[in-house]
Write a structure and sequence with these properties.
The complex is a heterodimer. By secondary structure, chain A is mainly β. Chain A contains no helices and eleven strands. In chain A, the strands form two sheets. In chain A, strands 2, 4, 5, 6, 9, 10 and 11 form a seven-stranded mixed sheet that branches. In chain A, strands 1-3-8-7 form a four-stranded antiparallel sheet, with no helix packed on it. The radius of gyration of chain A is 13 Å and the shape is globular. Chain B is mainly beta. Chain B is built from no helices and eleven strands. In chain B, the strands form two sheets. In chain B, strands 2, 4, 5, 6, 9, 10 and 11 form a seven-stranded mixed sheet that branches. A four-stranded antiparallel sheet of chain B has the order 1-3-8-7, with no helix packed on it. In chain B, β4 (33-39) and β5 form a beta hairpin. The model of chain B has no long low-confidence stretch (mean pLDDT 97). Classes of the chains: A mainly beta, B mainly beta. Chains A and B meet through β4, β5 and β10 of A and β5 and β10 of B.
Chain lengths: 107, 119
């Protein structure tokens, strides 16, 4: 199975800050990498697919980059509604695997 | 609009089985598969497997092989996930989602079904 490792596991930030979350795959997955946002009690919400493509309706302050084994999710200016947990997920092969999550908290 | 509506909360005893449903609407059911993902309390997301709504072909996570069965009813556009020999480790929220695109992603999710396994 492909292991997905996110860092950091949690971070504290203020509204307006730029935030970056990294995700590393245990082998090359090309650009088969998705990012999700999850709030308590809710299903995950797709933000970015194919490493860098913004899902329809997602604010442009979210962006994704990377290929191969190293990927980054960036939030250019953190808003109140962005405080949540973020997961990366590989779709290179099965089983599809997720990172352990990064919790973004209010400083 | 695409909707995936799941069945309600379940409480089961260890050793029992649970069957969770996921009813799809807003698209041609047989054009897409369905995946199941679970999330134990306070934990991350775990992919359980996939079923093709066109052929009924399945692909299960190896750790659940022999305990998980995914089936479908095309007449009602419903997918079922049955998990047997439950233990407390199976306590989780179970989600269905629709795979889309190439590379694949999950843009549409059900609301989740809480399954609690307790004696």
């Amino acid at each position: 199975d492909i292991q997905m490792t996110q860092s950091p596991s949690s971070l504290s930030a203020s509204v307006g800050d730029r935030v970056t979350i990294t995700c590393r795959a245990s082998q090359s997955i090309n650009v088969n990498l998705n990012w999700y946002q999850q709030k308590p009690g809710k299903a995950p919400k797709l933000l970015i697919y194919a490493a860098s493509r913004l899902q329809s309706g997602v604010p442009s302050r979210f962006s994704g980059s990377g290929s191969g084994t190293d990927f980054t999710l960036a939030i250019s200016s953190l808003q109140h509604e962005d405080f949540a947990t973020y997961y990366c997920q590989q779709s290179y092969n099965t089983p599809r695997t997720f990172g352990q999550g990064t919790k973004v908290e209010i400083k | 609009q695409v909707q995936l509506v799941q069945s309600g909360t379940e409480v089961k005893k260890p050793g029992a089985s649970v069957k969770v449903s996921c009813k799809a609407s807003g698209y041609t059911f047989t054009n897409y598969g369905i995946v199941w993902v679970r999330q134990a309390p306070g934990q991350g997301l775990e992919w359980l497997g996939w079923i093709s709504a066109y052929t009924g072909d399945t692909n299960y996570a190896q750790k659940l092989q022999g305990r998980v069965t995914m089936t479908l009813d095309t007449s009602t556009s419903t997918v079922y996930m049955e998990l047997s020999s439950l233990t407390s480790d199976d306590t989780a929220v179970y989600y269905c989602a629709r795979p889309d695109g190439n590379p694949q992603y999950f843009a549409y999710w059900g609301q989740g079904t809480l399954v609690t396994v307790s004696s």
